[in-house]
Every structure is written in C-alpha cells, then in structure tokens.
Design goal:
It is built from three helices and six strands; from the N terminus they run E-E-H-H-H-E-E-E-E. By secondary structure, it is α+β, with helices and mostly antiparallel strands.
Amino acid sequence: MPLNREFIGRAYESSPPFEIGRELVRHFSTAIGDASPVSHDVDAARAAGHRDLVAPPTFLTTLTFRRPSGPMGDPDLGLDYSRVVHGEQRFELHRPVYAGDVVVATSTVAEIRDVGRNEMMKIVSEITTVEGERLATATNTMISRGTAARDETAGSNA
C-alpha cells in the first residue's frame, strides 16, 4: 500500500525535551571511534574554548531513538517499517552541540514521492534548545521498498 501523501507538510514536535548528558556524549564518541579530547574530557573542552563536552556531529541521530518524533508511529501514514531502508542522513550544524544542552526537535514530512516501485520519504528536523537557539537541521531520507502505487494502465493494450 502506498504511503499517505496527506502527510506531506505535517510537523511533529518531540516531547518531552531531552537533556544531552556527558556520559552519553562520551559513550557515543567511543562507539564511533572519536578519540577527540573535547568529546571526552571537560577540562580539554574548556581549554579549547567550549563550555562543556562537544558532541560529534552525528550524535544527533541518537535523538531519533531517545525521543522519537515524526510520522513513523502514525498508522495512518501506512508505513510498514519492515520495508524501510535508510537512504540518507545529513546534518547542517548551526553551532556545536554540548553536554548540558536541553533540546527539542520539530520534524516535518518534506516529501513523499515514487522512485520506481519504491517510495522515498524525506523528513526535515529542526533541532533547537528549549530556549529556541538553533542547533542543527537534520534531513533524513527513507525508502519504502515496493510500496509505490502501481500504474494499472501500464502494459494495457487499450
């Protein structure tokens, strides 16, 4: 079944806000092999001019798992998650993400379109502090395999 195109333009706000903790920054940095002292040692981060530990740019992917927001859980979208393949993830950072930041994300379905027999859904998330300071714009593209509407006229001899 095709994805519900009425979802294009819908926005979802994450709730409740999420506080980025030092240990989470350290664990994520270790997991991706980032040994930068500014992501592990508060004194090193401050000596480099930062107010606290600096999260690696891809750290923001953890928000998806910790504070899910967006259309994926809405049954009216018609998404069968077993058919989903991750297509692309991009981040535009507006400033470093620090341990101690308390963040929210507003995710908007920017596009749903057919790509052959598949569908592509693009979600754009604006990530801010609870005070409204912009941290990042994240763009996530997912592919729903084999769910594009079939063209019933294709192949007919009319």
